[in-house]
């Protein structure tokens, strides 16, 4: 009986995709960059998701970006203009790592975004994040 349930659970993972994650809710000082995801498209499954989208980086000046990713979990776009993903630069102006939190869980996951910066932001904000950090670390 136990082995039958285990087999059913394994097969269920083959047919049911991982639900998308939301931004991590607990502030993390190691991730000072605030990223607003406007579009998040993902394909794949079984812990191997690929996708693309666009977003904005909150900072002294708002900056738009396009991105691609390959992660173990898809993620949602920010549904409110005040929501953001916590991020940090892995390669200045090229790669950001964002924090993901599966819905209904306290576990934190990471995902790397390969980005292409744009001259202007994509979104319109009435009050961008006042505590946002600069877009790239100072040398």
Structural class: mainly beta
Output the helix-strand order.
HEEEEEEE
Helix tally?
Answer: 1
Strand order of the largest sheet: 2-3-4-7-6-5
- Helical content stands at 10-25%
Total strands: 7
Biggest pleated sheet: 6 strands, antiparallel, barrel
Distance between the termini: 60 Å
Rg of Cα set: 17 Å
What would the average pLDDT be, to the nearest integer? 84
Q: Which runs of at least 5 residues are low in confidence (pLDDT < 50)?
A: 5-15, 130-139
**Backbone shape:** globular
What is the beta-strand fraction? Answer: 35-45%
Overview of the molecule:
The chain has 139 residues and is mainly beta. Helices cover 10% and strands 43% of the residues. It is built from one helix and seven strands. The protein has one helix at residues 2-15, and strands at 21-23, 33-45, 48-58, 63-71, 85-91, 95-102, 109-117. The protein has a six-stranded antiparallel beta barrel with strand order 2-3-4-7-6-5. The chain starts with a helix and ends in a 22-residue tail after the last strand. 27% of the residues are buried. The model is unreliable at 5-15 and 130-139 (pLDDT under 50).
């Amino acid at each position: 009986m136990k082995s039958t349930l285990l087999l059913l659970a394994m097969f269920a993972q083959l047919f049911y995709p991982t639900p998308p994650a939301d931004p991590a809710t607990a502030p993390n000082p190691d991730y000072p960059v605030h990223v607003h995801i406007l579009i998040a498209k993902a394909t794949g499954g079984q812990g191997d998701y690929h996708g693309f989208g666009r977003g904005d980086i909150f900072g002294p000046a708002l900056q738009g970006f396009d991105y691609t990713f390959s992660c173990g979990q898809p993620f949602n776009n920010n549904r409110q203009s005040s929501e953001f993903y916590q991020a940090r630069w892995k390669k200045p102006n090229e790669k950001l790592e964002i924090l993901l939190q599966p819905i209904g869980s306290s576990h934190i996951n990471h995902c790397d975004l390969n980005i292409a910066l744009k001259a202007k932001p994509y979104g319109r904000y009435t009050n961008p994040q006042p505590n946002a950090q600069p877009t790239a670390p100072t040398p």
